[in-house]
């Protein structure tokens, strides 16, 4: 399943990149994060508790930074499995692209190729896509809040 979202931040691209390139700051914006740990400069581990429809699951996700092209693009690989709740797996290839719209405005575009296994996969694309939009909206709001531009 392909998921594509974008939003704009009224800050220069370098400032937005500085935030995006810091995994701990990004993790602090993700809803439902139970824990986050940097393994090394390219690998991290995140535990996320999520509810989609009537199914709850806690995922342990391993992330690897595959590519960085500052300040324009980052590519991440995520692989996870549930450690509590509904059994399942997930993997995604995520591409984060920053575009300078104006001198003080940056568009953040995220494209994710997501694969789910287990009961979550059975829920169907519509429900998963709706949950994805909700999570992306929460994450982008929190990011703007931390960057001091919420409401802009």
**Euclidean distance between termini CA atoms:** 31 Å
CATH class: Alpha Beta
* Global Rg: 15 Å
CATH topology, anyone? Alpha-D-Glucose-1,6-Bisphosphate, Chain A, domain 4
Superfamily (CATH H level) name: START domain
Q: Give the name of the CATH architecture.
A: 2-Layer Sandwich
Give the strand order of the largest sheet, numbering strands 1, 2, ... along the chain: 1-7-6-5-4-3-2
Which structural category fits the helices and strands? alpha+beta
Count of domain modules: 1
Helix content: 25-40%
**Share in β-strands:** over 45%
Q: What is the average of the pLDDT values?
A: 92
Question: Count of DSSP helices?
Answer: 4
Poorly predicted parts: none
Major sheet: 7 strands, antiparallel
Description of the structure:
16% of the residues are buried. It contains four helices and seven strands. The protein has one domain: Alpha-D-Glucose-1,6-Bisphosphate, Chain A, domain 4. It is globular. It has 152 residues and is an alpha+beta fold. A seven-stranded antiparallel sheet has the order 1-7-6-5-4-3-2.
Labels describing this entry:
52% strand; 7 strands; alpha+beta; 152 residues; Alpha-D-Glucose-1,6-Bisphosphate, Chain A, domain 4
SSE map:
Blueprint lengths: L1 E8 L3 H8 L2 H5 L5 E6 L4 E10 L2 E15 L3 E13 L3 E14 L2 E13 L1 H4 L2 H22 L6
Antiparallel strand pairs: 1-7, 2-3, 3-4, 4-5, 5-6, 6-7
Give a summary of the structure in a few sentences.
The protein is α+β, with helices and mostly antiparallel strands.
């Amino acid at each position: 399943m392909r998921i594509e979202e974008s939003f704009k931040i009224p800050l220069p691209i370098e400032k937005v990149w500085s935030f995006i390139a810091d995994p701990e700051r990004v993790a602090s914006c993700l809803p439902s994060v139970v824990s986050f740990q940097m393994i090394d400069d390219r690998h991290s581990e995140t535990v996320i508790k999520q509810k989609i429809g009537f199914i709850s699951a806690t995922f342990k996700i391993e992330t690897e930074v595959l590519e960085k092209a500052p300040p324009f693009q980052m590519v991440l690989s995520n692989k996870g499995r549930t450690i509590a709740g509904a059994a399942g797996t997930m993997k995604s290839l995520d591409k984060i692209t920053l575009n300078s719209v104006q001198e003080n405005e940056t568009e953040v575009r995220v494209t994710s190729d997501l694969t789910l296994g287990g009961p979550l996969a059975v829920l169907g694309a519509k429900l998963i896509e709706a949950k994805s939009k909700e999570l992306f909206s929460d994450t982008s709001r929190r990011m703007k809040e931390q960057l001091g531009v919420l409401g802009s």
